[in-house]
Specification:
Elements lengths: L6 E3 L3 H13 L9 E5 L3 H5 L5 E4 L2 H16 L14 E3 L6
């Protein structure tokens, strides 16, 4: 592209790694020519070269909240509508320093 973006944010770390691989094949240097951010913080993101900047989801907290709701349902308690905010964490690595 003549008007290439400065960076790409993907829906998963796997997609971010694929973007990095495709960029490498096209001779586009990560992060100096294109910054890449993934989502999920899978193990491969930290060992891929360049390591992938990612947004980590607090999976334990998400599971604990879901389990509490499930236990309430099993115990026939009424679930009230509520929003549960679980804050993600940005993990900065080489692909987008």
């Amino acid at each position: 592209m003549d008007d290439r973006p400065e960076g790409i944010i993907t829906a998963s770390d796997v997609l971010a790694i694929e973007v990095a691989k495709a960029s490498n094949l096209k001779g586009i240097k990560i992060p100096s020519e294109l910054e890449v951010i993934g989502f999920d913080d899978i193990g491969l993101a930290s060992i891929y070269n360049p390591s992938i900047t990612t947004i980590a989801q607090p999976k334990y907290d998400m599971g604990a909240a879901a389990l509490n709701m499930l236990v309430d349902l099993i115990n026939k308690k009424e679930l009230k509508k509520k929003n549960i905010l679980i804050t993600p964490k940005l993990i900065i690595r080489e692909s987008c320093p």
